[in-house]
Amino acid sequence: MKVGLFVFTADDRYDYSVRHYDAMRGIVQQAESDGFDSIWLADHLLYRNPGEPTRGVWDCWTMLPALAEATRRVELGTLVTCNSIRNPAVLAKMATAADEVSHGRVVLGIGAGWNEPEYQAFGMPFDHRIGRLEEALQIVAPLLREGHVDFRGKYYQARNCDNVPRGPRPRGPPLMVGGEGPRVIGLAARHADLWNTGYMGGPETMSDRFPKIDAACREAGRDRATIGVTALICLWFPDLVANRPRFADSPLTGTSREIATAMSGYEKLGVEHIMIQCEPYTAESRRRLAEALKLYRGE
Questions:
Q1: Could you give the CA distance from residue 294 to residue 183 in angstroms, rounded to a whole number?
Q2: N or C, which end of the chain is more exposed by having fewer CB within 10 Å?
Q3: What is the domain extent for residue 158?
Q4: pTM of the full structure
Q5: Structure confidence at residue 199 as a pLDDT band (50, 70, 90)
Q6: CATH number, domain at 245?
Q7: For the chain, how many structural domains are there in total?
């Protein structure tokens, strides 16, 4: 099973200090040295909550190719890119170019989006997000895999569109769809190479997720074995930050040995790839996670 590290591109959630690229590059290079299989970037334009300062976020599609140039082995993915921010045909073109820069290490993760304040701030429509994603996938998937599409929809058009030159992989970078709603899982079953679910804790938190993707594949007439299941895990160290992460109902906690055991549990379930977000996002958290990864791999 592959194990990836979620890398923050946003201002620090506690003191709002800026995360500079040089620091991110160092974290990613250390993750590669520590044996992680992948690094993952969120796709947002800002975070804005009532009563709090606005948190800035670097554009992930600018940072991702730079981090590809700074590494040699790890996969690099978006977890997940917000469909509504970019034209889907242009997004396919961007992902193919990033795959070229990385020599075939990019994973295009895509979802419907959820952060309404950034839509408002940047003047993007927040309506019909699943409908827009459904049309977008009918453009993105063939452009990645075949390099051509001719599509006219309600929200998007890509008429006689060619994605050339082609990147280093004949069928382009893998396409991952992220989300838990039934419509999004259905879209993953119809279009994606990978399906991502989150925020997970221990392996037991996956118990209700497999039946959903199994049912979606049956409805789509697809062999369930042909789509990889991936999971974004929230890893919380209460001794380093007392408040439980508000975005995760049951975060994973424990010693490095217990975290390694949880990794083994995910592998036994048949999860293909896990991505881990540390709370707090500190050097000590990442050190403990790297230690758990070595234990998981018997090093």
A1: 38
A2: C
A3: 2-296
A4: 0.96
A5: very high
A6: 3.20.20.30
A7: 1
